[in-house]
Design a protein that fits this description.
- By secondary structure, the protein is mainly α.
- The chain has seven helices and three strands; from the N terminus they run αααααααβββ.
- The chain has helices spanning about 5-15, 25-40, 45-60, 70, 85-90, 95-100, 100-115; strands at about 125-130, 140-150, 150-155.
- A three-stranded antiparallel β-sheet has the order 1-3-2.
- A hairpin with a 2-residue loop joins strand 2 (about 140-150) and strand 3.
- The longest helix is centred in the first third of the chain and has 17 residues, at about 45-60.
Length: about 160
């Protein structure tokens, strides 16, 4: 019977920078996550932490990239990174850093990355604001996790293991 405690998986998780084991996050990673949250949910404080959590959940899974920058800049994932999105200029502008809300967002990023704050989304990888978007997702493959502010968060449904008869 395989050992339920997989030491190699644990060591890989530490080296990949899972939130609970990342006491000194890369400043570029913090900046990319903060700018993305600023571009996606600025003015909606209740949603900000959820947006950040989806970034870190996606990074942890590795499907969208291994770094925060790869995750947030994956094509058509975080709309504020899309070239024609009106929030892109605001998000990338130097004035974003001077915005009072930006420092708070950076603190929220650090808190999640360092494991000081729990994921408020229940593992969500997706979200949208139903007042401004109607994504063409296969909602049959998603389950809602929580509504934070104006955004509804979702995660992929996990396959249930069939029991042997």
């Amino acid at each position: 019977m395989p050992n339920p405690w997989d030491e190699s998986a644990f060591l890989r998780s530490i080296s990949q920078g899972f939130p609970a084991f990342n006491p000194q996050p890369d400043p570029n990673e913090v900046d990319a996550a903060a700018r993305t949250a600023y571009g996606e949910a600025r003015g909606d404080p209740a949603s900000l932490l959820g947006v950040i959590a989806t970034i870190l959940n996606r990074q942890e899974q590795g499907q969208w990239g291994d770094t925060v920058q790869e995750v947030v800049q994956a094509p058509k994932q975080y709309s504020s990174w899309n070239p024609k999105d009106p929030n892109r200029k605001k998000m990338l502008a130097k004035s974003a850093i001077a915005h009072p809300e930006f420092a708070d967002i950076q603190e929220q990023v650090l808190s999640l990355m360092q494991g000081e704050t729990a994921d408020p989304t229940g593992g969500a990888e997706f979200y949208f604001n139903p007042d401004t978007a109607q994504p063409q997702w296969d909602f049959g493959k998603l389950e809602p996790t929580v509504k934070l502010g104006r955004h509804q968060f979702y995660k992929r449904k996990r396959r249930k293991k069939s029991s042997a008869a």
